[in-house]
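Bumping with the actual sequence this time:
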Amino acid sequence: MYFFFVILFYLRSYFLLLPLLKERKKEIVNHILLHVYNALGVCYVRDGKLEKGITQFETVVRLQPGYVTAWNNLGDAYENKKDYKSALKAFEEVLLFDPNNKVARPRRDTLKEREKMYEGVSVKSK
């Protein structure tokens, strides 16, 4: 549908575009907000504010569960936080939507190997 909007805009068919935009305004705004939340999450993670980044990514995937990029970003943030169990869940979620995802598949496989390696090993806390 968005591709159709772009074509109408490119063709300068504003008389057709305006009624469609008014009709779909809320849907378009929500779609744009998802990209903004995801981008904000990326900025937070790059600044080392992992919790804030994770919150943004979780917001995106709650609003749009099929947003694969946000799931990948969420997995990456959890991995940076060393929360490997949550990272694994995020990458597995990506693969539910996109089974051949070239980012999530190797990361998920590495995390599964890591999980097997430490299976049955008790960790002492100080």
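The tokens above came from a reply further down the thread. DSSP finds seven helices and no strands in the chain.
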